[in-house]
Amino acid sequence: MTIFSARIIFLGNFCAQRPIYYHMKHTLCTWTLWAAVASSACMNLDLTREVGQTGSDTDSAAAEDIWRPDLVHDLGVVEGGLPPNDDGGDPLGIETEGTELGDLDEDILELLRDPDDTDPPEILMPVCAPYETPSDPVCLTQGPAVAAVRLITDEPTRLTVVAHGGDAAQPLQGGFRTVHVVLVRNLPTDEDSTLLLHLDDPNDNRTEFTASIRGGEGETVVITEVLADPLGPEPAQEFVEIFNYGLQAVDLSNWMIDDEADCNGDLIAEGTWLHPGQAAILVSDKYNPENPVDVSPPPGTLIIDIGASIGTSGLKNSVSESIELYDATGALVSQFNQPHLKPKEGISLMKVLAELPEIIPDTWQYNADNTSTPGLVPSIAPFGDHDGIGDNN
User: Do both 72 and 174 map to the same domain?
Assistant: First the structure.
C-alpha cells in the first residue's frame, strides 16, 4: 500500500470554527395559551455553548479539530496515523496544505498510483468527538430519523454509497480524501439498517464496509434559516424558516416559536400542517412577501403568521439570540443557537444542510450569496426520490 500522509481541510462550512463544548441545561416553565384554560410545560433543552475553553481530554480536543475547516490536519490526529518521513515531512513530499484532496490535479494523483500496490485501503478508528458515538471503526451521530457516519482511511480513497436504509444518502464531500462523512436520511428508528460503502484508492484497490445504523427519535421539523436584520422594515420583514425533511406530514397546531428560551413565544394556529419536503417561513402579521428590498419567497411557500413579531419585539441586530421551536406538548424540537454569528443587514444565517443533526456544532453559516433565501432549503437529495443514493464520483 502506498504510504501517504497528506494534509487536508475537512468538511468546508459544515465544521466547527473553534473548540466548542456543549452542556445540556434543562429548565421547566409554562406559557399561557390564548383561548385555552390549561397551560403546557415548556421543556427547554438548551445546548449552551462554552466558547474558547480548552478541554483537558486531548482525545476530545483532537476530535474537535477534525471538524474544523480553518485548520489542516495530519493523520496524526487519528489513532494509528502514519508517521512522517525521515525529514519529519510528508512521506511523498507532496505539498497539499490548503488543498482538498478531491481537487488535486491528475499529475499529483498520478504520483499516488503504484502498479505494485495491491493492498486495499484500511479504515482507521477515529478519535470521536464528545457528541459522537464510537462504533469501531467509525464514529456515529444521530438525529431524528437521520445518522451521520464519519470514517478515516490510511490513504486517500473515493467513497461510494452502495446501499442504505433511508430514503437518501449522501457523502458530504467528493473526490479522493482520507476523511469521509456520510449522511443518511429518514432511517427507521426501531430497527437497524445496513449501510454499504465502497472505498477505492487511486490504484483501484477496494475495501467494502458495512455498518448497522438507525435514526434517532424525534420530530423531523428543523429551523433552517433566520433573517434577523432585513433590509426592509423591522420586525415586519424578519423571518424564521422551518423545514420538514421527514416522510410524514407534521401537524404544527399550537407549536411555539420562541426567542431566548423564555417560554413566552408565539403559537402556530390550529390546522397548520407541514408536508414532507416542505418549507415554511414564520413571520409577523405585517410581513410583505413582495417587499422591494428583501428577497421574496417562491410562489406557493407556506407563510405562517405568528402575530406582531417573532419574540417580544422582534429579533435583535446586535447579537444572534437563540430561537427555539417547541411542539404542542412543550418539548423542544429544534433550536438555533449561534451566538458567534452576529446578524448582518439583509443577509440571513442558514443551516448548511437541513438534515444535519443539531448536536453537531457550527452547522450554520452566512448566506453564501450575501442575501436571504426564504422557502429554499439546502437538503441532501430531492424528495420523492426514495431510492436516492449519492456518491463521490
Answer: yes
